[in-house]
Structure formats: C-alpha cells, structure tokens
Design goal:
alpha+beta, 2 domains, 6-stranded antiparallel beta sheet, 5-stranded mixed beta sheet, 3 helices, about 20% helix
Length: about 230
C-alpha cells in the first residue's frame, strides 16, 4: 500500500522543502553574488576598490593588468596591492578590486587584505573620507545581514593618528570613516588595512521552516524501516 503512494509522499516532501527554502532569509538566495565598494571622497577623492562574490570570477586573479599609478596625478587613492605568487598568478601591482567565485558559507568569514590609502600631490582636508557601501546593482545585490571588520594594519607616523584601529560595519548601509590619509610619493608607504566579511547564520525561524520541510522525509524513512521489519 505504501509503495503505491510513494510518488505522492515524495511530492509532499518536495513541496515542504520549497516552502522552507522560500521562507529562508534573503541572504540565503543572494550570497553567491554581491559587491562592496570601498572608495574615497572629499579632496581629490575618486579612487577606490571593489570586493565581492561573483560566479563569473575566479578565486584569485581575474585577469587584467595592474593599475599604473601616475606620479603626476593629484588624487586620494584607495587600491589593493597584490604580489605575484601562489595566491595571485597575475602581475604584481595595484588593482581596483578583487572578486572571488566561491561564496562565503553561512556563519563563516573571508578576509581581503593589502588595501592602501594615500594622497598624491594633494593634501586631504576635513571632508576627506573613506566610504564603504553596497551599490544598487541589479546583478550583484547587497549582502543582506553581512558584517564587515576593517582593521588598520599600518599608519605612518606623519599622520599623528590617535583614533581607533578597527571598525565594525553593517555592509547593507553606507558608512563613512575618517581614516588617516598620508601624503606620500610611494603608495606602499600609505595607510594599510584589511577587511574581513562575515556571512550571517540562518535565523531560528528559517531553521524551523527547514525542519518542517525535512520532517516528512524522516517520518517516511521510519515507516519504511518498520514495514520492512514487519515483512
């Protein structure tokens, strides 16, 4: 009798699983593609870097040459520096960002490092900031529920900086930080930092919904074992 309705049981189980999936928080459906922009604003602002997850990318070098820093520019820059090696098979140089292909698992984190912040041929004023936010991109939506931890690794003594060395960020909103911006001729003498991105864990309600979806599978398995023993 049970075998006769196996297809119906499977159909019900699939329906419950679909309900549980649709009840999951937004991040569960968008964690495989998102973008975060780290940019400068204010005096000579305009330089920046992009990090994120994109299934079209690679876990590492995505192609393209390093960005040449023109020594005549008057600008405030924020770029990531990568050296050729086992983790980066591209040329050594400055890049405007780094996309990864593999999503961050729920409850896990990933660190992007080697960011340099500096001013070139211009002195930043009080309006100069570092802005961190998720652009309104239809293909790469903001990572709902994600948090960021920005940590300053090195600040030149010339900055006379006495502020905080680390900042916790809600990556779903725009945040502006007053980070130390030194005026240097060699960008590698600028302020250096890294940022860790933390993926959220499913909410209890979502876990409960998933449990409801799995319950029929468990019950069906128990019934089959009992029926086999009776036979």
């Amino acid at each position: 009798m049970i075998k006769k309705y196996v297809w119906l049981v499977h159909l019900l189980c699939l329906s419950f699983l679909l309900i549980a999936y649709n009840a999951a928080p937004a991040f569960a459906q968008s964690s495989d593609k998102w973008i975060i922009l780290l940019s400068t604003k204010g005096t000579g602002g305009g330089g920046g870097s992009v990090i994120g997850i994109d299934p079209r990318a690679h876990d590492g070098y995505d192609g393209g040459a390093g960005l040449y820093i023109n020594p005549s520019y008057k600008v405030t820059e924020l770029l990531c520096y990568r050296e050729h090696g086992p983790d980066w098979d591209g040329p050594t140089g400055f890049y405007g960002g780094d996309f990864e292909k593999t999503p961050i698992a729920a409850g896990e984190s990933r660190t992007w490092s080697g960011f340099y912040l500096w001013a070139q041929n211009i002195t930043p004023d009080a309006t100069s900031r570092v802005a961190i936010y998720s652009p309104n991109d239809p293909y790469l939506p903001p990572p709902a529920g994600y948090m960021g931890h920005l940590v300053l690794d090195y600040v030149p003594e010339s900055c006379n900086y006495t502020g905080s060395m680390d900042f916790w960020l809600d990556l779903t909103v725009r945040t502006e930080l007053s980070l130390p911006i030194p005026v240097v001729t060699d960008p590698l003498n600028g302020t250096r930092f890294h940022m860790t991105v933390f993926a959220p864990v499913p909410e209890p309600s979502s876990l409960a919904a998933l449990g409801v979806g799995l319950a029929p599978l468990t019950a069906f398995g128990i019934r089959r074992r009992r029926s086999s023993k009776m036979a």
